[in-house]
Amino acid sequence: MHLIIPDSYESKLSVRETEEAIRYIRETFQNEFGKEMNLSRLSAPMFVEKKTGLNDNLNGIEKPVSFTMADMGDEQIEIVHSLAKWKRVALKRYGFGLHEGLYTNMNAIRKDEDLDNYHSAYVDQWDWEKVISKDERNLDTLQSTVKEIFKVIKHMEHEVWYKYPQSVHHLPDEIHFITTQELEDRYPDLSPDERENEIAKELGAVFVMKIGGALKSGERHDGRAPDYDDWDLNGDIIFWYEPLNRKLEVSSMGIRVDAESLKRQLKIAGAEDRLNLPYHQIVLNEEVPFTIGGGIGQSRLCMLLLGKAHVGEVQASIWPDEMIDKCESNGIHLL
Fold first, then answer.
1. Cβ partners under 8 Å of residue 279, min gap 6
2. Residues 252, 265, 298, 315: which is the catalytic one?
3. Which of 84, 211, 305, 318 is the least crowded, having the fewest Cβ atoms under 10 Å away?
4. Is residue 266 part of a domain?
5. Annotated catalytic residue: which of 26, 88, 110, 195?
């Protein structure tokens, strides 16, 4: 069990006030985010058929929760890890045009997650996806989109401060950009996690770019599925989080693979057998639009803006008894 207990922690809001603030943040953010990014809200599935290849494979070792259905024979149905691939298909299916996009409330179960202050078996995020042109598959598009998202998050800080001035956690005024290779060059003796902590502490808010491929050292900064993000055009939005004295990631995003990057990354990952799956075939044949997309953690954003010590203060999930007892004895009330 990995648990950080901050010194003299005291929630500024009661449980009922916290629940009210959660609703306010979720409703307000998604409306402002949709307007700023030109995204329409769509309904989304909680589970998909395994044979489609639509589920997110994450690092390739996490097993999705799966089951069969009475009317589906022996077909394996999987609860989604995320909607990274489904969204791209939906943009084509529903006729979205250039620079139009969608967002959806994504609920998932990641049963292999290591539980701590930030991580839960229950994942709730805004999954979003937007159509871009082939010529826009570049760094400028990625960074300008990150700045748009940061702008909305920063505006939400002001909204929360106006409504809950005693509880808001203040954020830096700008976001910076750095690649995983630049981080390795800068902190060669630190682990990837330690590098992110150091740069987040120094800069306040940072977008760490190019996640998934090997660095000069031969090691990867972090795992990333080979068949949705282009590893040269992706990254994570990370904040320095004083309540826990460490970094907090609120979003993973990127420009999605085209045929060339899909084949290259699947070869590196030793997963070329996926090329025969329906989703991968339509990417290879350019039958889906070029897109940029990602996920923004709903509970993580609430935690960030309200200065909470544990994600369980802003979402209802399941935790080990030892964690529940230790949190309760230190003023951390898990929902």
1. 52, 53, 54, 85, 89, 227
2. 252
3. 318
4. yes
5. 110
Q: Listing from the earlier edge strand, what are the strands of the sheet with 66-67?
A: 47-49, 77-79, 66-67
Quick one: tokens of 217? 């050292």
Catalytic member of 78, 230, 236, 313: 236
Residues 57-115: tens digit of each pLDDT: 666 567 877 788 887 778 888 887 778 888 999 999 999 999 999 999 888 888 888 88
In a domain, 164, yes or no: yes
Give average pLDDT by consecutive 10-residue segment, the chain, 335 residues: 84 90 94 96 85 69 78 82 85 95 89 87 92 97 97 94 87 96 97 96 97 95 91 97 94 96 95 91 95 95 94 92 92 90
125 flagged as catalytic:
yes
152 close to 38: Cβ distance less than 8 angstroms: no
Q: Is 110 among the residues known to form the active site?
A: yes
CATH number of the domain at 157, please: 3.30.930.10
pTM of the shown model: 0.91
* CB-CB contact of 235 with 146 (8 Å): yes
Distance (Å) of CA 19 to CA 36, 242, 244, 303, 312? 26, 22, 21, 12, 12
**Set 11, 30, 82, 125: catalytic member:** 125
Whether 56 is a known active-site residue: answer: yes
Which amino acid appears at position 202 of this protein?
A: E
Describe the crossing of helices 298-306 and 139-163 by its angle, rounded to 10 degrees: 50
115 located within any domain: yes
Structural domain boundaries, residue 83: 15-328
Candidate list 11, 26, 30, 56, residue with the active-site label = 56
User: Residue 41: what pLDDT?
Assistant: 94
Total structural domains in the chain?
1
